[in-house]
Design goal:
402 residues, six-stranded parallel β-sheet, Quinone Oxidoreductase, Chain A, domain 1, single chain, Rossmann fold, 15 strands, 14 helices, alpha/beta, 2 domains
């Protein structure tokens, strides 16, 4: 089968790999009908989230058709259309039973303290082969797969595999109540889903902070009040627009990318649009823990702005991805403003069934976030354009069957 395979920093390829096989009685094999590119995938290719294991199939978003089932998968049948939860939970440990699927005690083969397992990630997450492929093995299928009703299209479902639950998780973490003002930092796909989700939770006003015109335009279309940080100081603007108080809640939907918000040369140096070999040679060194970040590194600009702009006693939810070695945070400022901080990897299996049903009834349309679709044969070109954040490249669907 065809799959997108990681070899080294800046070096990925589409190649033939063996078909997946059932390994455990709770496994399923699915034929993928839709996959997608995510900003998190770029972290692995750029080397800002390591260590990746050579040969890992990338991708953690997928929709497909069930082709094989292990003996202990009792809630699905051959031929079912399903959406894949990008994070992996067993469904029976104490954490999964309490809704913390991203902190499953069983799924990660590296041990109970290893943290979140997800498809197509670095070695500490499993690793588990990902979903940018024609087929995939799905562990713990009764929990990780959600059956799709015919009213929900692949284009809608692929957004529910990861980014919509993550945005919804951010709004949930932020504890948004009716009438709250909410600032969302970053208008990538997760940020846009956080904007929609903030409205679903009852936000009275939602502010969107970014610098890309196409992303801000999409945020405006979704009902947000837009702030371009390249044209005005976002902290001053948020204070002014909220009567000098600041927003009640903030969501960081950017993550580690915000540490390079004003460093285009860094992005170009790690960009896979450059020669892959050159990117490998210029890749940053890592310590034995697979850690590119060290104490003293500049804190994320999004985190700085969020802490500075929030109303006193406000809440900051962090759902943008930060690698384990990122150690810089304005903790003193946050403490002196009595801020509440909540963060983590999304517990996808907690939210996906609800979002599928909301899509079925027409309450939301996740496909509004998609910007384009490409066959798997064009995925390298799509990665390059996505990495450069070219205009119009917002959320890219990949067709594994083309």
């Amino acid at each position: 089968m065809k799959a997108v395979v990681f070899h080294a920093i800046g070096d990925i390829s589409v190649e033939d790999v063996p078909d997946p096989m059932i390994q455990e009685p709770t496994d399923a094999i699915i034929r993928l009908t839709s996959s997608a590119l995510c900003g998190t995938d770029l972290h692995f290719i750029r080397g800002t989230f390591t260590p990746m294991q050579e040969g890992t199939i990338l991708g953690h978003e997928g929709v497909g058709i069930v082709e094989q089932l292990g003996d202990d998968v009792r809630n699905l049948a051959i031929g079912d259309r399903v959406v894949v939860s990008s994070t992996i939970g067993c469904g029976h440990c104490a954490y999964c039973r309490d809704g913390y699927y991203a902190q499953c005690d069983v799924a990660n083969p590296n041990g109970k303290q290893a943290g979140t397992s997800f498809f197509g990630g670095p070695s500490p997450t499993g690793p588990f082969n990902g979903l940018q492929a024609e087929k995939a093995r799905i562990p713990f299928a009764p929990t990780v797969l959600t059956k799709l009703p015919r009213e929900v299209s692949d284009e809608q479902a692929i957004v529910i595999s990861d980014i919509f639950p993550t945005g919804y998780f951010g709004a949930d973490l932020a504890d948004i109540k009716d009438g709250h003002s909410v600032a969302v930092f970053g208008c990538g796909p997760v940020g846009l889903c956080a904007i929609v989700s903030a409205r679903l939770f009852g936000a009275g006003r939602v502010f969107a902070v970014d610098s890309k015109p196409d992303r801000l335009e999409k945020a405006r279309f979704l009902g947000a009040e837009c702030i371009n940080f390249e044209r005005e100081d976002p902290v001053d603007t948020l204070q002014r627009l909220t009567g000098g108080i600041g927003p009640d809640r903030a969501i960081d939907a950017v993550g580690i990318d915000a540490s390079h918000a004003h460093d285009s040369s860094a992005n170009e140096k790690s960009n896979i649009a450059a020669e892959e070999r050159e990117a490998r040679e210029n890749a940053p060194e890592t310590n034995p823990d697979g850690d590119n970040w060290h104490p003293g590194d500049a804190p994320s600009q999004a985190l700085q702005w969020a802490v500075q702009s929030l109303a006193k006693a406000g809440t900051l939810a962090i759902v943008g991805v930060y690698p384990p070695g990122f150690n810089s945070f304005p903790i003193g400022m946050a403490m002196n403003r009595n801020l509440t901080l909540k963060m983590g990897n999304c517990n996808h299996s907690k939210y996906i069934p609800k979002l599928v049903d909301m899509t079925r009834t027409g309450q939301i349309d996740p496909s509004e976030i998609l910007s384009q679709s490409h066959p798997i044969s064009e995925v390298l070109e799509a990665y390059r354009a996505f990495d450069l954040r070219e205009e119009g490249w917002l959320k890219v669907e990949i067709d594994p069957e083309s």
